[in-house]
Automatic annotation (TrEMBL):
Subunit structure: Homotetramer.
Binding locations of ATP: G11, R72, S73, G102, N103, G104, T105
Any GO BP: canonical glycolysis
The keyword Transcription regulation is assigned to this record: no
Binding-site positions, ADP: R21, A22, V23, V24, R25, R155, G186, A187, E188, R212, K214, S215, S216
Enzyme Commission identifier(s): 2.7.1.11
Name listed for the protein in its UniProt record: ATP-dependent 6-phosphofructokinase
GO cellular component: 6-phosphofructokinase complex
Record-listed Mg(2+) binding positions: N103
Pfam families linked to this entry: PFK
Example of a GO MF term: metal ion binding
SUPFAM superfamilies documented for this protein: Phosphofructokinase
Family per similarity comment: Belongs to the phosphofructokinase type A (PFKA) family. ATP-dependent PFK group I subfamily. Prokaryotic clade 'B1' sub-subfamily.
């Protein structure tokens, strides 16, 4: 393999730049030309591709976001869009791809590979940590620490004013951020999509706290929880508790995606970027590079996309036990 392309797609995640850097510098080390594809699959269709070298990725390991930009492409979901993308890759002589992203990114790469035979190896870049085939995804650790910093600050004001705060974190289909930031932040309760937590249980948790003279509480709500958003949950709770209860809601939103990546994410992204490149060189295709038990592994895109990644039940137990 003499020439490859690298791109980021879908939601950005802290550490993507470190991953791009590892792919580019790894390619230079191995004598392979590498082209950066801007704006994901849209850039592939529109020919936004340029050659990269070691200097192209200088001073980016500490930066959040992605220097290659990111986008979701409706056109790539059509056969006509993928045909354009293939033609542009062939014009440049690109023989393989490293795709940095999540479920949608890998779904597109799998379809593209099956249609045109271009080998692709993925690196898992998503703050949700919801991809089967790796213990942690790029950006997750930073997102948890960003959420935790906000929770610590809100805890101070909640305690000062004897308030109940419902804090919404990202996780439309996954409660990993909610659970880990909740444990680290000493939350009284965590609500996640994977486990139904009825409003009655939330009310009972608050009442038990009041019976122990607990004057403030923090409830973490993943955005995809079955009872609704943090605001919707708070509204339901207000109807079932004393009017004297001072209830507030904070939605952390996209702050969790930005900011400098943690040391852990920089190292993880570097391992996965180099692992994806060297997997491509070794003949891997339609797979995602991941780290399981500190070992580099490759998981077929089909499994990564299809198989669930359940939350460790011990973590859910910890939330309940440690909030007593």
């Amino acid at each position: 393999m003499k020439r490859i392309g690298v791109f980021t797609s879908g939601g950005d995640a802290p550490g993507m730049n470190a991953c791009i850097r590892a792919v580019v510098r790894g390619a230079v080390y191995h004598g392979i030309e590498v082209y950066g594809i801007r704006r994901g699959y849209n850039g592939m269709i529109n020919g936004e591709m340029s050659k990269m070298d070691s200097h192209s990725v200088s001073n980016i390991v500490q930066r959040g976001g992605t220097i290659l930009k990111s986008a979701r492409s409706k056109e790539f979901m059509t056969p006509e869009g993928r045909k354009k993308a293939y033609a542009n890759l062939m014009d440049l002589g690109i023989e393989g791809l490293v795709a940095i992203g999540g479920n949608g990114t890998f779904t597109g790469a799998m379809i593209f590979g099956n249609e045109y035979g271009i080998p692709t190896v993925g690196a898992p870049g998503t703050i949700d940590n919801d991809l089967y085939g790796t213990d942690y995804t790029i950006g997750f650790d930073t997102a948890v620490n960003t959420a935790l910093d906000a929770i610590d600050r809100i805890r101070d004001t909640a305690s000062s004013h004897d308030r109940i705060f419902f804090i919404e974190v990202m996780g439309r289909d996954s409660g990993y951020i909610a659970v880990q930031s909740g444990i680290a932040g000493g939350a009284e309760l965590v609500m996640v999509p994977e486990v139904l937590t009825p409003i009655s249980e939330v009310v009972e948790t608050l009442k038990q706290g009041w019976s122990r003279s607990k004057s403030s509480s923090i409830i973490i709500v993943a955005e995809g929880d079955e009872e609704g958003s943090a605001q919707e949950v708070a509204d339901k709770i207000k109807r079932q508790v004393s009017e004297d209860a001072d209830i507030r809601v904070t939605t952390l939103g996209h702050t969790q995606r930005g900011g400098p990546p943690s040391a852990y994410d920089r190292i993880l992204a570097s391992r996965l970027g180099l692992g994806a490149l060297e997997g491509l060189m070794a003949g891997q295709k339609n797979v995602m590079a991941g780290i399981i038990n500190n070992d580099l592994v490759y998981t077929p895109f089909e499994d990564t996309i299809r198989l669930p990644k359940p939350i460790n039940e011990d973590l859910l137990r910890m939330v309940k036990i440690l909030s007593v």
